[in-house]
Structure formats: structure tokens, C-alpha cells
Specification:
The chain has 399 residues and is of the alpha+beta class. It is built from 13 helices and eight strands.
């Protein structure tokens, strides 16, 4: 998958957009006191938060404050893309250097909050300030607090880049902390309208033109139900559904087009990966069947040899029955296990069909021997001696 390049967008506005004023002084102070040795991983930061705070509201504030107050924007590497770097690599580097770009802020914030037990989502999109649409992608976050979705931009909460000398200025602010979807849409537009968290999401055209209220004459979009549906899908199908929503909402600029391309590539990559994983899983199941089948054939051959020797040496009746019952059960289990192999295009399909045929053939033979044993054991001992009328070939399936 091609990584989307997220770049910090200059934040000039410090408007609160009418957010209710809540005193977070004690939470911020406690997070400012976290020992440096506890800031080397998101798990250790989350553990510190869980130790000192109990409510989701307090925990999300603690996660946001630490991220915004401790990470500086990495201007020097804002255009550097390392395709071999995993998300965990980026997190580790960000925590070590205390620098990053917008996606690093968002991912670190998400991982800390998630580790405290809060549900979070990483969102990619683009922004608009003072009616000017940015030509750079951006990343921010959403978290479900006490059953309701709110939006967070820890990058814009940490400071800004001075346009005069292109230097980062730390100025922690909370204008974009715990924003409602209706307020966040003023400036932040997700590529995938699912993450607007609105029953009447706006289109890219409407966002660009400054129309921020959804058209309630349109069909209602139950985003809560759609998020549940999205989470139930495979990774490949999640990317597919996302690509369809991105396309549906209007390809109004290059950023959106690139997001569509990236989602489509991710869908193809995950689809191929799922197929590879399915092939490997099927092969593993088939190998287990082959192993069990070979064991059953060996035991069936042992029984045939024992029957041809007219059940000599003499064994107790239950052991005689077990000598054929065990391989018979294994063969039936082989047949059942074939149902666990998903039907997909596979180069080994012919081999599997041959194996199924061999299993069915051996079940018929073992059933015949089992029926003989049941009949044999039902007779008096004097009659039993007269029942061995012919020799039987070993239990090797025909080609």
C-alpha cells in the first residue's frame, strides 16, 4: 500500500467554536508531571493515565494534552516518506525524538487513548481555513467518549509553523479538542464521509463552497449503523467500501483522487493477502487431512492383516472392534474436515479431489470390515471360526 503523505497545516485560528468551557487544569498538571521514563511507549503512558484517572472524559483529555504538549512538528522531515516503516516504527520514533508530522500526532494520540480502553479512529482528509482549502492532506482523530463520537486534532493543538521563517512555534491550545462533528466539519473534511459522523454528510463540493450543514431532504445516512457494518467487514472489504464512499462524495481535487487510488490499492493488496492466507490455511488443513488419512490407512492395513490371520492372536472383543473402529472414525473425520476447506481457485484442486475420492473409497472398505466385525462379535465363538472365507487386500486406495 502506498502511504498517504500527511503534512501539517498552518493553524492561525484559535477560536473555540463555542465549546463549553471545562476546567482541565488538574488533569493537564498531572500529565505534565509524568516521569520521562514512562513516556517511551504508548502503553506506559496509558498505564500512567489509568492509574490517575478513572473516567473516559478525563482519560481522553490526558491523552490529548500529553500528545499536544510533548510532540513538536518535524519540519525537516515533513516530506520524507519511508515505505518500509510500520506504524509501530513511527510511534517508537515519534516517542523517542518527540517530533513528528500530523499522522504521527494522530497515531500516538489514538494508541494512547486506545490503550486506556477508549475506542478511537484515525482519519485522513484535507482542511480549510478562512475559506481557503489546503492542497495538503491532513490526519486527525476521533474517539467515542461515553457513547458519543468526538473529534480531535492534536497537531493543531500543539502549535504552528511560522510562515515567515518556516519555524515551528509551540503554542498548546485546545480549540480542536473534543469537537462535535457539526463543528469540526467547518475546517476538517474526511476523504471518507463515514468519518464525518453525521446523518446528513456534506459532499466535497459543499465543503469547498462553504456549505457545512447537511441537506436533510436527502436520504438519512445512519452513520452509527454504517460504522458497525464497516467494523464487521474484512480488511479488504473495509477498503473497498471506503473507496466507494470516497468516489461517491465527489472527486473534486487531487487529494481526494489520490485517497481513492490509495484505498483501491489497499483493497487489492488486502484482497490478495486474504487469498494468499486462505490458500495457506487450506493447504495446512489439507496436510492435516493427509496425515490423518495416512494414519487411518496404516491402521486399516493392520486390521486387514489381522482379519486375514483369522483374528489371531486372539484379543478381547472390544479390542477387535477398536482395531477397525478407530481407522473408520479417522476416515470419517477426514471427510468432515474437507468441509472446513473453503472453495477457492487453487492449483491443488485436482489433488484435493483425488484425496476426497480416496477417502470415500477407504470409508466404503472400512465400513465393510466394520460390518463384518459387528456380525462376527454377535455370533457364538464356535460359529466365528467359520466366518473367515477369503483373504482381503490391504487398504490401499486405487488410482
Amino acid at each position: 500500500m502506498k502511504n498517504i503523505l500527511f503534512v501539517f497545516t498552518l493553524l492561525l485560528s484559535t477560536l473555540s467554536f463555542g465549546q463549553a468551557k471545562v476546567n482541565y487544569t488538574s488533569i493537564d498538571k498531572k500529565m505534565a508531571e509524568i516521569p520521562s521514563n514512562l513516556t517511551t511507549s504508548t502503553d506506559s503512558i496509558a498505564k500512567y493515565i489509568n492509574t490517575h484517572f478513572k473516567t473516559e472524559n478525563d482519560k481522553i483529555r490526558a491523552a490529548f494534552y500529553w500528545t499536544a504538549a510533548n510532540i513538536s512538528y518535524d519540519i525537516e522531515n515533513m516530506f520524507v516518506v519511508n515505505y518500509n516503516e510500520t506504524r509501530q516504527d513511527r510511534i517508537a520514533k515519534t516517542l523517542k525524538t518527540k517530533t513528528g508530522i500530523c499522522v504521527d500526532y494522530a497515531v500516538v494520540f489514538n494508541e494512547i487513548a486506545k490503550a486506556t480502553g477508549i475506542k478511537t479512529v484515525l482519519i485522513s482528509g484535507y482542511t480549510k481555513i478562512n475559506d481557503r482549502v489546503s492542497n495538503l492532506s491532513h490526519a486527525w482523530s476521533a474517539a467515542k467518549i461515553d457513547g458519543k463520537w468526538y473529534l480531535f486534532d492534536p497537531t493543531w493543538g500543539s502549535g504552528y509553523v511560522n510562515s515567515t521563517d518556516n519555524k515551528y512555534i509551540r503554542r498548546t491550545n485546545f480549540s480542536f479538542y473534543k469537537m462535535t462533528p457539526e463543528l469540526m466539519i467547518n475546517s476538517h473534511m474526511p476523504f471518507d464521509y463515514l468519518w464525518q459522523f453525521m446523518n446528513y454528510p456534506i459532499t466535497n463540493k459543499e465543503f469547498i463552497e462553504g456549505i457545512i450543514a447537511g441537506d436533510e431532504t436527502k436520504e438519512k445516512f445512519d452513520f452509527i449503523k454504517e460504522i458497525d457494518k464497516q467494523e464487521s467487514l474484512s480488511k479488504a472489504n473495509q477498503f473497498f467500501e471506503s473507496s466507494q464512499r470516497i468516489q461517491k462524495n465527489g472527486m473534486k481535487n487531487q487529494l481526494i483522487s489520490q485517497a481513492y487510488v490509495d484505498a483501491t490499492r489497499s483493497w487489492n493488496y488486502e484482497k490478495d493477502k486474504e487469498n494468499r492466507d486462505k490458500h495457506n490455511e487450506n493447504n495446512s488443513k489439507a496436510n492435516a487431512i493427509v496425515k490423518q488419512f495416512n494414519e487411518a490407512i496404516k491402521e486399516l492395513n493392520d486390521f486387514v492383516h489381522y482379519r486375514n490371520n483369522q483374528f489371531i492372536p486372539i484379543l478381547p472383543d472390544d479390542q477387535i472392534k477398536a482395531k477397525i473402529q478407530i481407522p473408520n472414525d479417522k476416515l470419517k473425520k477426514c471427510k468432515e474436515d474437507f468441509l472446513l476447506i473453503e472453495p477457492i481457485e487453487n492449483a491443488n484442486t485436482d489433488n484435493l479431489n483425488d484425496l476426497k475420492k480416496a477417502v470415500d473409497e477407504m470409508i466404503i472398505k472400512s465400513e465393510s470390515h466394520l460390518e463384518f466385525v459387528k456380525n462376527y462379535l454377535s455370533k457364538p465363538k464356535l460359529v466365528r471360526k467359520t466366518m473367515f472365507t477369503k483373504k482381503y487386500s490391504s487398504g490401499i486406495p486405487s488410482n
